[in-house]
Amino acid sequence: MRVVPPARPRKLAKVPFVELADGRLQGVVSSGSDIGRVYVSSIAAGTYAYACSTNNNRPCGGARGGFCNHIRALVAEAVLQYGAERVARYLKAEPGDGELDGAGLVASLAATRPAPGGSSAAAPVFSRFLRHLTYLELEPVTAPLPEMHWFPSTGAVA
Amino acid sequence: MRTDLLFDPVDGLDEALAAVDAFDGVLVDGLLRPQPAQVAGLTALADAVAGTPLAARVTEAVEKAVAGAASEDHFVVLAAARTALMGSVHDALTARIGEVTGRPRAAETAPAADGEEHAVNVLAAARAWLCDLARTGWHGIDHDLIAGAAPVVSAMLPDPLLRRQAALLDGFAAELAASCPGTALERVPERRWADLWSRALLLTLPGAARTPAVSPATGRLLPLGVDVQEHATAVQAQVHAVFEPADGAAPRLVRASVSAPKPDTVVGAGLWQLLRPRMSLLAAVGEGRSMELDAMPLTAEGDLLWDDERARAGEAADPFATARVILSTATDPVTAPLDRHPARIAVPVLLEGYAAESADDGTLTFDLAGQRLAVDTDRAPAAGPLTAKAVATSGACVGLLRWDAGEFVLQPVAVETTVRKKTVAVHAGAWAGGTTDKAGARAEKAATDAVTVLRERAGRLLRK
């Protein structure tokens, strides 16, 4: 039995990192204008308090009166990766009836007129993203890992 | 094959599992201030091992735990008692599978020789975290507690000798994090988490995960199929195969494993891309070839410690031909004492002459002379052509016999089906080495793009 379903494949160029953690939907969004800059964006579960700033802690100009485009992209990609239902459940969102997609979820969250939150989470999220990237640099091994039998492939094709 | 024996009850199984379940219930609310029901659960564990060499130490550990004063050593003893019970379940089930297949068994293995202590500090940190979990209980977990695993995992991952502990802790911690806060949990996967907890705790002991003694294997390797295991940040592919020693000794069932840590967004064909460069056997499996081994290290437990320098591509070899001709004479390996657990039973078998039956809820069974064997098609890797539909229309199947939730289950790794009056074989690992299949090639492209983006981001952001 798998408790955490695997991520579904998605394109990573715009939003290289998304996670449901620490009571927030949070992630890293690549800047559209500067290739060396990324934004750390988040929405808190329950209150939908949002935050967006660069990795150097400069606030995002777009996130003053509501969701900026980074946050909208974050929600859309999270829906691709985890499925709308799981994202909505984590955020404790109560979208209306009918088929739920990324745009619909963003609209229903924005409609509650959430307040901006602090940007204090930016540093830990960014460091988790960097830690996540280091996993690509690690060499494979050929000694058996018997405990991986507890984590079967689930074959679910998205 | 005496498949009818798969459906006979196994003596003592229910009693052993009842004691395990009693202990697993104890971990739900943790051992900080044990309640009467928890005392009963601990006592059940002690009673179950009363006639064994563990008895005295388990009794002492239970007494301390009941008083809410268990030390790390006591938790280790409790985990050992539970592991011993699961080991007995494993042995009974494996003996039954031996009767079913009629295959010879290898001789018992000697324990690994003592080596030098390795990474004592980080293992101690892991042990401390796991003992905190046991005190807190699954209902008490929160993000702060679970975050304590991250520095331990980060310290372990770069050391290849600690990959086993790292992969387990990382997958376990991610699962717990996704279940926080514990107070809001509607259902706790008690046996699963107790399994992961007790295994992780024992693997923090010196020598518990030591590489066992190896002997050089020279001869022909005939692949049967591939089993893929993954959690968000790790993947392992295990190739099950028959090894024919060049010296004419009896053929043996062996496994070759390759594993890697991964970002959670690397999925599907991306898994093969990570593993492929480290093990040429995956390409051979995809092409339907055997391999010639030259002094490849082989453990007494039947694990090849793969080294590309010691293997070269051999002639074409059909896994179904291997399964029909040699599998029944191959020796089954013996599991290392500490690794005995029903969840890791995965024994290659060939089944033919069954009637596949799909229920309305999508579950699949093979009717074997009137008895129904459950078939688990979910375990097939996403990046491969073996689908539930192919299995449901198959007439022959190479699969891994497993045991899950109280019954034997078959995990197909290859099937033969009939397409336009011709027999076609479909293998779960067909895309392991790459593919010209349209859907497969698309999956490869998507995975390559994902890794390219991550590497670009890593290159730009990591080294600042």
Q: What gyration radius of chain B follows from the Cα positions, in whole Å? A: 23 Å
The biggest beta sheet of chain B reads: 7 strands, mixed
Oligomer: heterodimer
| Strand residue percentage of chain B | 15-25%
Helix/sheet category of chain B: alpha+beta
Q: DSSP helix count of chain B? A: 14
What are the low-pLDDT stretches of chain A, counting only 5+ consecutive residues below 50? none
Placed side by side, the strands forming the largest sheet of chain A appear as 1-2-3-4
Index terms:
heterodimer, A: 158 residues, alpha+beta, four-stranded antiparallel β-sheet, 4 strands, 15% strand, globular, B: 464 residues, OB fold (Dihydrolipoamide Acetyltransferase, E2P), seven-stranded mixed β-sheet, six-stranded mixed β-sheet, 14 helices
Description:
The complex is a heterodimer of chains A (158) and B (464). Chain A is of the alpha+beta class. Chain A has a domain at 17-126. Chain A is built from 4 helices and 4 strands, in the order ββββαααα. Chain A has helices at residues 69-82, 84-91, 102-110, 122-134; strands spanning 17-21, 24-30, 38-44, 50-54. A 4-stranded antiparallel beta sheet of chain A has the order 1-2-3-4, sandwiched between helices. In chain A, α1 (69-82) packs across α2. Chain B is of the alpha+beta class and 464 residues long. Chain B has 3 domains: 13-106 and 117-202, no CATH class; 214-329, OB fold (Dihydrolipoamide Acetyltransferase, E2P); 341-427, OB fold (Dihydrolipoamide Acetyltransferase, E2P) (Beta Barrel), CATH 2.40.50. In chain B, strands 7, 8, 9, 10, 11, 12 and 13 form a 7-stranded mixed beta sheet that branches. Chain B has a 6-stranded mixed beta sheet with strand order 5-3-2-1-4-6, with helices on both faces. In chain B, a hairpin with a 2-residue loop joins β9 (364-368) and β10 (371-375). In chain B, 47% of the residues are buried. Classes of the chains: A alpha+beta (158), B alpha+beta (464). The interface between A and B is large, with 53 and 82 residues.
